[in-house]
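Recap for those who missed Tuesday's class. We walked through two folding examples back to back. For each one, the amino acid string is listed first and its predicted structure tokens come directly after. Nothing is annotated here on purpose, so try labeling regions yourself before you check the end of the notes.
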Amino acid sequence: MTLSVPPARAVDLRVQPVDDVLDRVERSLRVRFDRDSLIRKRRSIGGRTDRGTWVRVERRSLQRIAAQGGNGPETAAALCGVAMPQWRTGLTWRDEDEPVMWRADETELVTAPPVGQAALVTEDPGLPDAWWAGLNTSLDALAAQATPRIATPDTDSITQDLVDATIRQAFPEAVDLTIPEWAPAHGDLTWANVTGPDFCIIDWEDWGTAPRGLDAATLWGNALAVPDLAERVWLERQPDLESRSGRLMALFFCAKVAGPYAHEADPRLEPARKQAAQLIDKLRST
């Protein structure tokens, strides 16, 4: 018999009162948040502590935990050669009223700010060569490791079926979409999850095995509004992005931008459509 997990109510932590959650974390981890430093996102809240660390609190449905687990930052601590905040301790508890779990992770405080305030950038951040070297070293080291976890970009477990459905919705003319190579990935490598000018990758809750090139394609796609930056990402991660799997991941990203939920005001939209046509041609010829 298969047991079903009830769906959780959609909650936006940017507006939802969470004082009781923060109080519980402070008591359990014996820290105090700098409440003025809190960064509130839809699914998480993070802030500095009086211990000179950073604590990130996430609300995750039992459905997502059943599919992937809820300890991404903790398991990522075992990765070698990747620039990320050092993980220190964690706390997990089940909500008394809803089918969700709360998790708090205390990590090293990273003082460099995120490169982008959102997933995409609309201006060139002028990153130094050392930043690009850090990106390459970290992504190469990550891909060389192994994990039973499955990456969850946009909270969905990435599978061959998901890639097929996403691309076909936007580009039904696309050819064979079979992904030949899979490797560990961050799963949400947007410009908001990399810091600069000192390179570091943050927010590891979605990491896991994914098609080769997912991270590079995500960073590239979120730079499409800045052509020179997108070109730099492509050149730096050329081995990934010019593999068949990498081209499919670039097309997968373009499909999410240009598909059924496309926004005409999105500065990535027209570049994504043009890039998709080129990618489909390349995939047909290889």
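Example two. Treat it independently of the first, because the proteins are unrelated.
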Amino acid sequence: MTHFREHALLLRHIADTGLAVSELGFGASAIGNLYRVTPDEDAAAAVDAAWEAGIRYFDTAPHYGLGLSEHRLGQALRHRPRGAYVISSKVGRLLVPNENPRGVDSEGFVVRDDLRRQWDFSRDGVLRSIEATLRRTGLDRLDIVYLHDPDDHWRQAAEEAMPTLADLRGQGVINAIGVGMNQSAMLARFLRETAADVVMLAGRYTLLDQSALDDVLPAAHEHGKSVVAVGVFNSGLLARDRPAEGMKFDYQDAPRSLVDRALAIAAVCEQYGTTLPAAAIAFPHTHPSVVNVTLGMRNREQVARNTGLHHRPVPDGLWDGLRRRGLIRSDVPVAGAGRGPA
């Protein structure tokens, strides 16, 4: 059995919220049976291993396994000191009875489809969703609540859901509010135009895609808000030491040009004594607004791998080396600007 050193991860503060998250987070989509079944005992062992490794930020959502992820995460954390960790969930996909079940969920999770997702960013929908999440997790409160993928629902999300979350924050029911999306342009709008404290940025500040430097990251810096980075492997292309054809980029087969680019980055990583996945995890921390990188983890072995990669040394000089070769943008912040206690 792998043993972990407890409290081995630095804590970073989400601006103006009083919350401190470990710089590596546990993404709980996989324990909602994403793509394949994860046994109950593996899910529980993954959360326990993450705790032993010093991870103190855990993220879930109703969408993940139609509530299974929330249930499992809540069960695994229930005996932990409530003030010792931060948990986030999401609203916008309300779970309602499925009148026409076909047996298995159609959105990537291997679970029964007795429930279905219903887009709802109304005040009532937000309140009902949070109440249901608390019931499924068995916890007394949530620390962070994100709007989940409001791409096609800007007006209701910005004008109804976000003010509802702000009211709950003002009442002390939750500590921080935000938005999680795969795109960066609308996230920047939420940072600039709403009461959001933090955004969950998926795949747009990675070794292969730094487009968030055009909008989200400047907005976060300008307004003193925080960013949680997810999807740092861009669906898998950055997850191995040596990328290969057939690997995924943003949920699709990666084009040859991107595979070649990833291979070129991997070669530079090797020259600097590190690996591509280790660099992929470290890279978002180059920006001072990024407080956390959250990775999906299914079992104890994945926790061991991810925490090992996180702790693997990645020299600051790597970023300069990648800039010189034109493999990352020239406006990536200077080495050492982001990672470290805050």
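Answers for example two:
The radius of gyration is 19 Å.
Residues 11-324 form a domain with the TIM Barrel fold (CATH 3.20.20.100).
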